[in-house]
Amino acid sequence: MQEIQKPQLWEYAPYALEYVHLVPDDGLVLRHLQDNLQALKVLVDSLSKEKLSTPCAEGEWTIKEILVHISDTERVFAYRALRFARNDFTELHGFEQDGYVVASGANERSIGDILAELTAVRIASLALFRSFKAEALERAGLSNGYKLSVRSAIYIVTGHELHHVRSIKENYLS
Asked: Cβ neighbours of residue 122 under 8 Å, at least 6 residues apart?
């Protein structure tokens, strides 16, 4: 399996520090990204429809909304990685995650449908990320006003999911 070393602090925005730090420092980020999906499926598989569609507190997202948010964010960061890996250094804008969640209709969807979408996104992301040669992983551009290297985008996707899995465990399952 291809090894991708952790990015340096200057390769990504300060808000992503937590995500990058959640990923083990073994260079096997693609394996972790693949394995995380299976762990997430096991985690939500036994939850009731009510648990999946009820926020843990007023103003918080439901588990279904969190799962769709993970898919949406992965798509955005995979697109950013693709652009920079292909030498397109046009500055990219951020996205409004809260607006995406509201517009997603996640709570009206079945958990099977949401997990099927997340699986499809993950398969596509892994195929894309595995296609990048070492020099492409080092390329970087500006995203939402911050430098973003291709390899840091991969680590952010991986750590972002870990962040939300931890949140689900702490806020919904404890």
From this structure: 33, 34, 37, 74
